[in-house]
Write a structure and sequence with these properties.
Elements: E1 4-8, H1 13-24, E2 28-33, H2 36-49, E3 55-59, H3 65-76, E4 83-86, H4 103-129, E5 133-137, H5 150-170, E6 176-182, H6 203-214, E7 224-227
Parallel strand pairs: 1-2, 1-4, 2-3, 4-5, 5-6, 6-7
Helix pairs in contact: 1-6, 3-4, 4-5
Length: about 230
Amino acid sequence: MSKSIVVTGGTKGIGRAIIQKFAKEGFDVFTCSRNSSDLQQLKADFELEFPNQRIYIKTADLSQKEQVDDFAKMVKSQGIPDVIINNTGVFLPGSIHLEPEGNFELMMHTNLFSAYYLTRAFTLEMIERRSGHIFSIGSIAGLTAYSNGGSYAISKWAMLGFTKCLRQELKEFNIKVTSILPGATFTASWEGVDIPVERFMKVEDIADSVWSAYNLSPYSVVEEIVIRPQLGDL
């Protein structure tokens, strides 16, 4: 029976690179996005490249709890996944005292609450099964305060705290929990900036790091991976 992975926000950037990496290793995939046309394109590309594997897609805005629940129900209809990648996120720059009303709520609901609700949807079954690996895609913004980070940075600090707590709760049940904390990675978030591509990390490097952490023996877990551009943060 094929193993399966859930990747939220899987149509672009880091999420898509992780899907590609795990699909090459024989995993079936569950993913979601707010953009249905991007999902359909991902599905078509996946089925062309991996004709013997399955991909399940759902249009969902994970800033809305009801849509997180609906996505989880879709996944559960096919079983309990082996790996969960909490990747969905949104970045709106701005200082705490100047950013528009609603930025805080949007980024907390998208970047943090989605991971909280989705993880809760599967943990009891993972505990009963005594296996699984949960990854949170955070950011170095969750380690280092910087100007113009605003609510995004707050959400990523909270995401790291959530993941640390989850690690302590689940370790006795043989469930691994890992925080991935990347620096500037060349994704759609950076489109249009006047910075050489060479200054960014590649999404494939993040995916390779996730795969490496997943492949440790049952006796070890990588709790945190901090990945930065070779020439330093942007």
